[in-house]
Amino acid sequence: MPDRTTFTLAGSGRVAEIAADPLVPGAWVLSIDGAEQSHVDLGDPGDLFYDYVRRIGAAIDHLATPGRPLRTVHLGAGALTLARYLQATRPGSEQLAVEFERGLLDEVTARLPLPEGTRLTVREGDAAAVVTGLVSGSVTGLAAGLAAGPVTGAGEWAGSADLVIDDLYRGITTPPHLTTAEWYADTSRLLAPGGVLVVNIADDDGLPGLRSRLAALAPSLPHRLVLGPTSVLADARAGNAVVLASRDPAVLALADDLRQAGPHPSAALDARHFDSPLDDIPTPKGR
Fold first, then answer.
1. pLDDT of residue 144
2. Is residue 6 pLDDT above 90, yes or no?
């Protein structure tokens, strides 16, 4: 494969690029319209690159007995970095990926093959419509897995996922309809008892987006643990936070382990830490 290849996405006309990482041999970066989306190390899919992805990886490591397969839904798939990670660290995990960009995953997997044995089913389309269909059982014709493995019917995902990963961005923003209480209520219906929804949130100084999302999550998934760099969570600076949300309070008991897991400097806070009104948010230090 050449060091750089570009292709136009059939549904949106956006331009995607897969380029070799000049600093990490065997690693590749997927970008869409110039915005980096995913980093994949083909030689070691268990090696995660971006800070927030490493935090999600640490959460995956601690959600169940090491090595136990996790039934997982990926909302926003990119180059399938975390699907690869699950197969590397929890072989046999049954996974479903939902991707808005039509044809993206076919292009990605043709150039960046999935680890052997990956059990992955794909559904293309807007995440809200796909999740509604998965919950109701009305989605039919899920595409055959991009790797060998069984195709799973839509209705079988409702109430059965150990893990749902919400990393939904178009460019550098999340569509507003994928940030509401209604959206999280629908998404929560995919979770098995004790299941966890993981949400990646890129935010500005003061963390208004994080606070808004935490409030939207609360009615459906009241127990919420927030992970991130101390500069983001303690100093309210712009950056990425990762939220683990569940109906089960056991998710909060992961705080110490995930703080220690890093990347460092690391914080892991109960969502109640962010309950103060927006008007009371401190000015980020050094500003």
1. 40
2. yes
* 180: its two tokens: 């509401």
Note the pTM of the prediction, 2 decimals. Answer: 0.91
User: Which class does domain 45-280 fall in?
Assistant: alpha beta
Locus of tokens 């101390």: 230
By mean pLDDT, which of 44-48, 90-94, 101-105, 228-232 is the weakest? 101-105
- Output the CA–CA distances (angstroms, integers) from residue 195 to 7, 66, 164, 223, in the order listed: 37, 16, 8, 11
Domain extent listing, the chain: 45-280
Q: What is the pLDDT of residues 119-177, one digit of tens each?
A: 999 999 999 999 999 998 876 444 544 443 333 444 588 999 999 999 998 766 899 99
* Cis check: omega of the bond before 265, within 30 degrees of 0: yes
Helix locations, the chain, DSSP H: 51-62, 81-89, 104-111, 127-136, 181-188, 208-217, 230-233, 255-261
Q: How far is CA 230 from CA 51, 165, 256, 266, in A?
A: 12, 22, 14, 5
Distance CA 76, CA 126 (A): 10
